[in-house]
Design a protein that fits this description.
Length: 344
């Protein structure tokens, strides 16, 4: 569900950088031009035109473009193109580059760049809109409320950029949001990264002979209510963000199932877990097969709607993320649904 990588890599580009492209993108342009045996200057102008046109389209489709200029977006978009397209395929066609740019999250990217520029109104909106999502992810990654609050506050400090780089600019993680995925999902990944970093720092305080045990423990920890999300992984940000999604979806499903009437829970249990046909389930409930079918369809709709309400209203998810979660995460849930259905 989440596809942003939050790492302080050399491919991230600060907003409104005066040069049109980062050095890496230039190298890709040169390599692409050589492969096609075209003049470097010609290929440079070709990609520059694509990025400028894409930036114009992005500003046009944003509901609130924060009065940003095209130049503020070109460098950021160019960094994403280099990272996600040209790095793997220096010969990426123009259509793929244009498609990549047109699929960026326009409003989220404009909001982040405005925050980077120091616009307090944009920063206030960022906090107000995404505080619930950050807090929810922090709770999933912490063992208690105090730890969750500390983690959430640390996230906002990292985003605001309380530290400074060697060039004097704030060391804000906002520079690493490319707009490729939703901002809410990216923020949950930031929480995941900070949780992993915190764990790694704390692990250095233990005795050397305990390192193997800690590594094994990190591999075994599962995200669930009240458990710290500190699992070892190749890509900790994306993997832990997915674990948060599964945990929150699981909790929302728990709540929704428990809210069903006893008869509705019994129908779902008979059909899905006892493998009865609708006709047989109807006999148990004393209703016609058609009635059982209509009731089951209504239950499925109600459950989906209620889970979505919880995720969006209480967990800070977007509607699109909630919809995607049903297919991407739902099949991996660990919830013992049958046990919940047996509750009276």
């Amino acid at each position: 569900m989440i596809d942003e990588r939050v790492s302080e890599s050399s491919s991230a580009i600060p907003a409104c950088q005066k040069t049109s492209f980062c050095i890496k993108l230039w190298l890709r342009v040169i390599g692409l031009a050589r492969n096609l045996r075209l003049p470097v200057e010609s290929k440079r102008r070709e990609i520059e035109t694509l990025l400028n046109e894409g930036a114009e389209r992005l500003l046009a489709r944003a509901e609130n473009n924060r009065s940003l200029s095209r130049e503020c977006l070109v460098a950021r978009i160019g960094g994403g193109v280099e990272k996600y397209l040209l790095r793997d395929d220096p010969n990426a066609p123009e259509t793929e580059i244009a498609k990549f740019v047109d699929e960026l999250q326009a409003d989220d990217l404009c909001l982040i760049i405005a925050c980077e520029r120091g616009e307090e109104k944009a920063w206030t909106e960022l906090v107000e809109r995404f505080k619930p999502a950050v807090r929810s992810a922090a709770r999933s990654a912490s063992s208690n409320e105090d730890a969750a609050e500390e983690l959430a506050q640390s996230i906002w400090a990292e985003l605001y950029g309380l530290r400074t780089r060697s060039d004097g600019r704030p060391a804000s993680k906002l520079a690493y949001y490319s707009g490729r995925g939703s901002l809410a999902g990216w923020l949950r990944a930031v929480v995941a990264q900070l949780a992993v970093d915190t764990f790694r720092k704390q692990s250095k305080l233990v005795q050397a002979e305990e390192d193997a045990d800690l590594d094994r423990l990190a591999q075994e920890v599962h995200v669930a209510a009240g458990q710290p999300a500190l699992a070892g992984m190749q890509n900790p940000e994306e993997s832990m963000s997915n674990r948060f999604a599964r945990s929150e979806l699981q909790q929302a499903l728990n709540t929704s199932v428990q809210e069903l009437s006893a008869e509705d829970r019994l129908l779902v249990k008979l059909y899905y877990f006892d493998n009865l046909r609708l006709r047989e389930a109807g006999v148990v409930l004393g209703v016609h097969e058609a009635t059982a079918s209509r009731r089951l369809t209504r239950i499925q709709t109600d459950l989906r709607k209620r889970v979505s309400e919880i995720l969006v209203g209480e967990r800070g998810w977007t509607k699109a993320e909630a919809e995607a979660s049903f297919s991407e995460v739902g099949q991996q849930l660990d919830t013992d649904v049958e046990a919940l259905l047996n509750q009276r």
